[in-house]
Amino acid sequence: MINRIQTAALLYLLISLLFSTGCGRDTDKLVQAKVAERVHEYSAKRIAECERNLLARAEKIADSLLIQEAIDDLNDSLARSRPGRPDRPAPIPPIDSTPVKPIFDR
């Protein structure tokens, strides 16, 4: 037969096994809940950061397109309103029509 020491040791192991498995399930559920919560918070932060970066890039692209379109419209309107070449001025008639001759005779 099994003596008292072996029975006490077996009983002690059985009780400790029951206590450890009984508490482990609640702890596992709590740990899993905390992990799931932290994963959700992290993914929400990452998604928000990605959205901010995406909006910043989209704003830069939209601004540069609007600026380029405004510059193109301005350049095009200035080219259309550019005046043409002026007409050639009429020749200026000479003021004195007398022939040129020396001032002193020799």
Entry keywords:
single chain, 106 residues, mainly alpha, rod-shaped
Major beta sheet summary: none
Rg, Cα atoms, Å: 50 Å
Low-confidence parts lasting 5 or more residues at pLDDT below 50? Answer: none
Which structural category fits the helices and strands?
A: mainly alpha
- Tally the beta strands: 0
The arrangement of helices and strands along the chain is: H
Helix fraction bin: over 70%
Termini, distance in Å? 169 Å
Task: Write a brief caption for the model.
With 106 residues, the protein is mostly helical.
Describe the structure.
The chain is mainly α and 106 residues long. It is built from one helix and no strands. The chain has one helix at residues 4-80. The protein is rod-shaped, with a radius of gyration of 50 Å. The model has no long low-confidence stretch (mean pLDDT 83).
Question: SSE layout and pairings?
Answer:
Layout: H1 4-80
